[in-house]
Amino acid sequence: MTNAHSRSVFDVDSLAGLRDELRLQAHLFKAEMADRWNEAEARWHDIEDEVLAVRAAAGKSRAELGAAASLTAEVLRKTYRDLREAVRAL
After folding, report:
1. Global pTM exceeds 0.70
2. φ, ψ at 10 (rounded to 5°)
3. 3-state SS of the chain: helix, strand, coil percent to 5?
4. Could you tell me if 65 and 50 are in contact, meaning their C-beta atoms sit under 8 angstroms apart?
5. Between helices 62-88 and 3-56, what is the axis angle to 10°?
6. DSSP codes, 29-56
7. Which sequence spans correspond to the domains of the chain?
8. Rounded-to-10 torsion of CA 40, 50, 72, 42
């Protein structure tokens, strides 16, 4: 086997190993992103529920309900930003 031939076989083996590693990382990233997206969706539904509660609650203070909705919205906003940064880091 010539030196050039053995080097090209080594390069292919090296590339195959890198490919396998990246495929695994992509799979794990995809699963992590799905989990994070599902958490964000749950928070989104919490916000929707809080908005409905604000509309339906006549006796509660608007300030109390608004503060709760704002806190939930801020957590969701941070989650969306984190997801966006994770995608950009690819």
Report:
1. no
2. -60, -45
3. 90, 0, 10
4. yes
5. 170
6. HHHHHHHHHHHHHHHHHHHHHHHHHHHH
7. 28-88
8. -20
What b/e sequence results for 53-87 when a residue is b if at least 16 CB atoms lie within 10 Å of its CB, and e otherwise? Answer: eeeeeeeeeeeebeebbeebbeebeebeeeeeeee
- Amino acid (one-letter) located at 51: V
Tokens coding 67: 């503060």
pLDDT digit string, tens, across residues 23-70: 888 888 889 889 988 988 998 898 888 777 777 775 567 777 677 778
Q: To which residue do tokens 């939930």 refer?
A: 72
Decide: 50 and 86 in contact? Cβ < 8 Å: no
pLDDT per residue as tens digits for the range 26-35: 888 889 889 9
Position of tokens 């919490």? 46
